[in-house]
């Protein structure tokens, strides 16, 4: 079996590897390199941020031949992930004379068809657009040598499964098929119909040490004051966060209010056009935004270098969602923090997820422009001190009116006495 060694890579790649500051390959890169290079169909499972993209790109790109048409097809679960994988693939493919073409929804189909005429060797796209181009006979599926499903558990979920299955049916049975995700073990039964023989399962989850320290906290805060919490988070020192919502409508309302208060935020949503999504993500990566508001569309595979925080504005609907959101921080040995905003009724749901994922949760408090892991002690003034402080703010004349009681005279005037006699 081929072993991952830098000396086996093209010289230009060895230089790029060193220039990027990489040292030894990560565990998933080391263990999948040989099987993929030798043509095996692989299910690769490793923690978020452990280098899965390069784990399949490097061995598969070395097998692609220049000027021989479409040979490698990579399907991703979102447009953002497709563009990110495209950027990484281009960096390594162009160095050895290969062309990479992204095929995503929201972009011009006509332009993509024109670029397909140049016969790019590597295609990276979302299932909807790829299937559309296959049906239009613009992608020559019989030439393909390898298929990769990145974030496979997301691609094989209800709704997306049909698209991925239809694409797979158009491909030659003998081609190499690979499946990668941090939670691919959840869909192994769904993967099996995609391959003609049992795939090789490489799971390094328990052995991998690439993940940095991630602190998992919860903040008990009223639901109606979520925007207030996000405003206060935005003013923490060295703060930048991906802020996750379960619903698009809730996210949209929060964005409007935060922008009204002049905070540098933007949103990343599935109903936005390609340019808006690309612009928001790019601004966030450049540090121009303090918060990027999003849904689970950004929980898969996105890599924001040295991102310090992930904020869940409510408890995620399932444990896989929490795991992938949290995976945006603590990547490749970095430290990160995840804060989930809860109320008394939802805290039990978060604790259930934490138990399933073996995560240690701690309560955190937002006070005085800082996050505290212990409840802050607020000194209370005595009533006497408070009263004295209030009186000092009032003028002497007003104070006399407010605090000097008017004594009622017990003696009746002569007129009052006479009036009583007349009534009698």
From TrEMBL:
Q: Where is the Helicase ATP-binding domain?
A: 33-202
Q: Which residues fall in a compositionally biased region of kind Basic residues?
A: 404-424
| The keyword Nucleotidyltransferase belongs to this UniProt entry's keyword annotation | no
InterPro entries xrefs: DEAD/DEAH_box_helicase_dom, DEAD/DEAH_RhlB, DEAD_box_RNA_helicases, Helicase_ATP-bd, Helicase_C-like, P-loop_NTPase
Keyword ATP-binding listed? The answer is yes
Instruction: Identify the residues that the record assigns to the Helicase C-terminal domain, covering every copy.
Output: 225-372
Query: Organism's domain of life?
Result: Bacteria
> Any one cellular component term from GO for this entry?
ribosome
Q: Which CDD domains match?
A: DEADc (cd00268), SF2_C_DEAD (cd18787)
Q: Tell me, what's a Pfam family for it?
A: Helicase_C
User: Region (Disordered): which ranges?
Assistant: 376-424
**Which key words tag this protein in UniProt?**
ATP-binding, Helicase, Hydrolase, Nucleotide-binding
Which Gene Ontology terms cover its molecular function? ATP binding; hydrolase activity; RNA helicase activity; RNA strand annealing activity
Q: Where is the composition biased (Basic and acidic residues)?
A: 377-387
Annotated GO biological processes are: response to cold
- What is the recorded name of this protein? DEAD/DEAH box helicase
Q: Which organism is it from?
A: Enterococcus casseliflavus EC20
């Amino acid at each position: 079996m081929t072993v991952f060694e830098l000396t086996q890579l093209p010289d230009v790649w060895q230089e790029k590897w060193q220039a990027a500051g990489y040292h030894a390959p990560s565990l998933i890169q080391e263990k999948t390199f040989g099987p993929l290079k030798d043509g095996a169909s692989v299910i690769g499972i490793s923690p978020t941020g452990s280098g899965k993209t390069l784990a399949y790109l490097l061995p598969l790109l070395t097998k692609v031949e220049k000027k021989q048409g479409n040979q490698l097809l990579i399907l991703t679960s979102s447009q953002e992930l497709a563009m990110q994988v495209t950027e990484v693939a281009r960096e390594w493919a162009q160095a050895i004379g290969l062309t990479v073409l992204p095929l995503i929804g929201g972009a011009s189909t006509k332009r993509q068809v024109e670029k397909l005429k140049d016969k790019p060797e590597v295609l990276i796209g979302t299932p909807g657009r790829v299937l559309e181009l296959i049906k239009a006979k613009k992608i020559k599926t019989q030439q393909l040598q390898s298929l990769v499903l990145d974030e496979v558990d997301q691609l094989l979920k209800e709704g997306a499964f049909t698209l991925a299955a239809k694409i797979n049916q158009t491909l030659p049975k003998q081609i190499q098929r690979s499946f990668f995700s941090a939670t691919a073990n959840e869909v192994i039964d769904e993967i099996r119909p995609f391959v003609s023989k049992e795939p090789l399962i490489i799971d390094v989850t328990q052995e991998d040490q690439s993940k940095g320290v991630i602190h998992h906290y919860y903040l008990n805060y009223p639901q109606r004051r979520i925007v207030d919490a996000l405003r206060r988070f935005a003013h923490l020192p060295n703060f930048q966060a991906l802020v996750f919502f379960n619903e698009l409508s809730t996210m949209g309302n929060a964005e409007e209010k935060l922008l009204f208060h002049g905070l540098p935020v933007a949103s990343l949503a599935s109903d936005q056009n390609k340019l808006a999504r690309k612009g928001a993500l790019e601004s966030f990566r450049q540090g121009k935004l303090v918060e990027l508001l999003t849904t689970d569309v950004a929980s898969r595979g996105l890599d924001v270098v040295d991102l310090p925080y992930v904020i869940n504005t409510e408890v995620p609907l399932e444990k896989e969602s929490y795991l992938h959101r949290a995976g945006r921080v603590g990547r490749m040995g970095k430290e990160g923090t995840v804060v989930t905003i809860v109320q008394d009724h939802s805290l039990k749901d978060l604790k259930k997820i934490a138990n399933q994922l073996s995560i240690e949760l701690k309560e955190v408090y937002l006070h005085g422009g800082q996050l505290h892991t212990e409840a802050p002690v607020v000194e209370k003034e005595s009533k006497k001190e408070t009263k004295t402080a209030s009186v000092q703010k009032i003028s002497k004349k007003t104070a006399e009116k407010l605090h000097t009681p008017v004594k009622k005279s017990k003696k009746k005037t002569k007129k009052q006495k006479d009036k009583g006699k007349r009534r009698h």
